[in-house]
Amino acid sequence: MGWVFVSGGTRGIGAGIVRALATAGHPVAFTYAASDAAARALEDELSGTAQWCRGYRCDMADRNAVEQLARELLSTRGAPYALVNNVGITRDALLLNMDDGHWGDVLRTNLDSAYHASRAFVNSMIEAGDGCIINMSSVTGIKGNPGQANYAATKAALIGMTRSLAVELGRFNIRVNAVAPGVIATEMTANLNEMQLKKLASGIPLRRLGSVEEIAANVAFLLSPASRYTTGQTFVIDGGLTA
């Protein structure tokens, strides 16, 4: 199997994706922003798999840093089979209280990062004549959420980027899809008490939060031969929240 590049791979959904893909047999290169300890722990956890898995510290919002890492990986590993553009942050504030920092940080991290990674690797994928790109969006980019105009803008933009790249790259046998998770049980929800979790789940038709493993399984499917004729689509995994 070809190797996979996963941005933002040490926490939450990103770490789940790294685990799922490594377990499925893909060599994985993942990036992280801060914690060397978390990256090394994930490497150690997956060292029992037959495939290569390694973390790289990289600011995905920095084009030069992304291009430098891409050159290193391309020279040692060749063209990736897939990119999973997962890195993302929130800087929540109502529009009346949102400043340029709130806006710019989220756009650079969530949207520019996907652009930088895609630009850095896509030529090699075209030359290989195969591959796929998965952009991690969110239901917030579909239904909106108060206080998240910046985050919603980036996640909606990733869906538009997905559709356009699917049209551009299809003739090279490169598939491009998006995954839009709903409310998922991660570190961000771990601090909520039982009452808060019940209230959150009550608005979801399936009456529960999604799991990281359920999102990661969808990503693994999109990299598998079973999805060879699937491109330009957004897979909403939200328990019916946007139904």
From TrEMBL:
Residues 2-182 form the Ketoreductase domain. InterPro entries: KR_dom, NAD(P)-bd_dom_sf, Sc_DH/Rdtase_CS, SDR, SDR_fam. This is 3-oxoacyl-[acyl-carrier protein] reductase. Belongs to the short-chain dehydrogenases/reductases (SDR) family. Keywords: Oxidoreductase. GO terms for biological process: monocarboxylic acid metabolic process. It comes from Azoarcus indigens. PANTHER family: 3-OXOACYL-(ACYL-CARRIER-PROTEIN) REDUCTASE (PTHR42879), 3-OXOACYL-[ACYL-CARRIER-PROTEIN] REDUCTASE FABG (PTHR42879:SF2). GO terms for molecular function: oxidoreductase activity. Pfam families: adh_short_C2 (PF13561).
